[in-house]
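Pilot study result, target chain (278 residues):
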Amino acid sequence: MLFFPNCKINLGLYVTEKRLDGFHNIETVFYPVNWTDALEVLENKSPGAPAFELSWPNQNVEIPLENQLLYKAWKQLSVIRKIPPVSVHFLKAIPLGAGLGGGSSDAANMIQLLDRKFNLGLTVNEKRSMASNLGSDCAFFIENTAQVAKGRGELLSPCKVNLSAYYVLLVYPNIHCDTALAYKTVQPQAGRKSIQSIVEQNDLSIWKKELVNDFEKSVFEKFPVIGNLKQQLYEMGALYASMSGSGSTVYGLFSSKPDTDVFQPFQTHLQEPAETIF
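Predicted structure:
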């Protein structure tokens, strides 16, 4: 069985307070985009097969198996459900450290895929709970629709926003942003106009004036090229542009098809109007 885990972008991002457990509370809107990885799970019927086997041919960062989110997702599920030995084949296309939630999506889709392939009968709430154990934004990818996210990113509620009329251009400048470091350099601030109230107006002229990402200031100071990319998107005619998450990907929303060639040699992805994640 083959799944294509997609990424997300953040529509606005507030860091509202630092918690006693060391994490931060945030407010943002997660929106799904159809830039995807590829994830396949096969039952391994070979005699003496290991319970979990992973093939990741384009892996460029060595991560011990027990630390990989795909393994953690399988391990968590295998404790509560009987799963036969599996052979997992994985191809990474969503950049790492890009603010797109690619690793979280892979983990959530691993839960979804195992549930469907082996008829495990998990409820949506069970899958969301397991996903939340793996990462702050993992639960979003279970339902994979526009959601207001609060708390660490795991407290989700539906958001009435629709970008299907726009071209969504993502530009990854080949810079890996460390999320933990980004949180150390941002100053929490509470009491602002809610992101949901801004986003649900579906008026990009208002977004441009009011919708902000708290990480941009410190990330742009450290990596000026990222801030320059945001400005370039506006110069190309973007109706709204922003950095996603803690960086380093920036995205622009366009009413007409933008020229992606100008961003070479950076990685780009263009989602056309009315395209979906499916």
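One observation from the pilot: The mean pLDDT is 94. A full batch analysis is planned for the follow-on phase.
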